[in-house]
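A further point concerns the way the authors explain their paired sequence and structure data. The central task, working out the structure tokens from the amino acid sequence alone, is never made concrete. I therefore recommend that a typical entry be quoted early in the introduction. An entry of this sort, consisting of the sequence and the corresponding backbone structure tokens, reads as follows:
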Amino acid sequence: MKAARNIAAAPRRSATAKRPAPAKRAAAARAPSSDSAALQAHVDDLCARARPAARLAALLDDAKRREALLAAADAIGEAASRIHAANARDLAQARRDGLETAMIDRLRLDGGRLDTVINDLRLVASLPDPVNQLLESRIIAKGVRAEKRSVPIGVVAIIFESRPNVTIDAASLCLRSGNACILRGGKEAMHSNRALARAFCAGLARSGLDPHLVQLVQEQDRGLVKLLLARDDAIDLVVPRGGESLISAVVACSKVPVIKHDKGVCSLYVHSQADFPMALSLVINAKCQRPGVCNAIENLLVDEAVAERFLPLLARELNPLGVELRADARALPLLPGARPAKEADWSTEYLALILAVKVVAGLDEAISFTARYGSHHSDGIITADAAAAERYLREVDSACVYHNASTRFTDGGQFGFGAEVGISTNRVHARGPMGIRELCTYKWVCRGEGQIRS
């Protein structure tokens, strides 16, 4: 098999190796590798390049990082036709493999999506510098002056599935915050990821920067991920972004600290004081605008005081949109065409036009239901009662909580971050959309005049 290589480097082959036929190359790209030595060599190569690149990134001034990102945006625009062609290959393979509609939608770079990627990249370049910012200043013992300043994390590994735009989102955010990154995308977006990373790194080289600031893992064998996650000597943070099985696998075996982008079992609660037209609009947007994303709602809770009036209106709006409703015993007779909900439905991330509906006794039950079945991602209340809204916002322990707004706003672009490396459901270091500030840590810079501790 081919030896390990970096996105910016040409493929390496031994002098005696024969180039396989195109059909065999394509099959090999989809099939897992069994050569553990080659996998280890690839990981070693990635890690050996990443740490020096991270030290370089941390020393780059603000203007140079901006310049590099703008050059990368230009390079991606110039490579648009090649990127679209690569994406078409991935989409065609996804259809042949029978992937779900939601996953195919996440793969797409057509219909203006590549332009959005480029615009987001330019927006990231325009954001205020997050590095070396003064966070706190104090005089400590013996008159030593101490400053708490923001610094890059170092080497960030992002492991993701399906969405090729993550390649550019993650690369741009890491570089803007002075980090180096190692990106491992899923095989379903392999050609798209490679084309995007190649263009991004061409922009870095055009700016005179080391293209190894951004490295794309070339080997698709799952065994490589475990080897990568063992390298706590070379990688400072891992951000997994994908389905529940990916998150669980990374958390279970990683020696490197992990910030999870967990599944999105999100909900809206229609309170007894909800405005019905507003509630219908918010539910339709949160479920139907783009159902295959993590900030779309999967559960709808309706207060028993308004259920008999609201739920028939809801069915009338959602049935023509093709939404399958799964309802509890109290909601079922009020929703024509609905199916009985099962216990598992309340904690399922459908990523499709399916909505589980439950009638609740009031605010207490809505809060306890969300705590039990939700994934602490994004949840909201629809009400004109300010006191009820404030209690919900205070007591629901999710990364993002909403009052009278769609959960679809949980997104780095919508928050003004330009993009995100993920939506963290952790309680430590970062929560919600992770932008450039969340990709920094801090250090204490202390200045004295010869003081000693007594």
In short: The CA atoms of residues 39 and 219 lie 7 Å apart. DSSP finds 14 helices and 16 strands in the chain.
